[in-house]
Design a protein that fits this description.
Radius of gyration: 19 Å
Order of helices and strands: HHHHEEEEE
Helix content: 40-55%
Number of domains: 2
CATH architecture of the largest domain: Orthogonal Bundle
Shape: globular
CATH topology of the largest domain: DNA polymerase, domain 1
Low-confidence stretches: 115-123, 133-161
Number of helices: 4
Structural class: alpha+beta
Largest sheet: 3 strands, antiparallel
Mean pLDDT: 76
CATH class of the largest domain: Mainly Alpha
Distance between the termini: 56 Å
């Protein structure tokens, strides 16, 4: 049974339809794949519409971050949240290329880091010879960190690379 969503504002619906048409014609995606993209993106666009984003110009990075946070709070797995962000990135990238969207609200947002179930817990930062290092689980390399600041409320970490 599908959940009843409010109708999308016309500009959002038109942008979505244009994108899905491009996926079908240019990328040749299968009907089920298109249906999954439609469902995922309609969920996001309905959420934006309910919060006052009636057109693409009103959509900002904070709206995307709030949507992803709401998905997490609603119990969505990190992989699902990452998929939602990827779908929105692809849609917004298409709309920028088609000049329907002036700026991509997803451009500066990073996807959640997904660790495999067998991955070790992240290692703490280690100091060696006056520099801070942290083993990177995703790539198995050491990352040299010059300065680190963290805003835990936003789950944002700023890392400055060596000069």
């Amino acid at each position: 049974m599908e959940d009843a969503r409010p109708p999308l504002p016309a500009p959002l619906r038109e942008g979505l339809e244009d994108y899905l048409l491009a996926l079908r014609v240019e990328a040749g995606l299968a009907r089920r794949t298109l249906s999954a993209y439609r469902s995922d993106l309609e969920r996001a666009l309905a959420w934006f519409g309910e919060r006052g984003c009636a057109d693409w110009a009103a959509l900002g990075p904070e709206d995307v971050v709030d949507f992803l946070a709401a998905r997490r709070a609603g119990g969505a797995a990190e992989a699902t949240v990452a998929h939602d962000l990827t779908a929105l990135r692809m849609l917004c990238g298409h709309l920028v290329a088609e000049r329907r969207l002036a700026r991509d609200p997803c451009a500066l947002l990073r996807a959640p880091v997904l660790l495999s179930a067998s991955a070790d817990k992240p290692q703490p930062l280690k100091k060696a010879g006056g520099s801070w290092y942290r083993p990177c689980i995703r790539c198995g390399k050491l990352i040299h960190v010059r300065r680190l600041s963290c805003d835990c409320g936003l789950s944002v970490v700023r890392v400055e690379e060596p000069a």
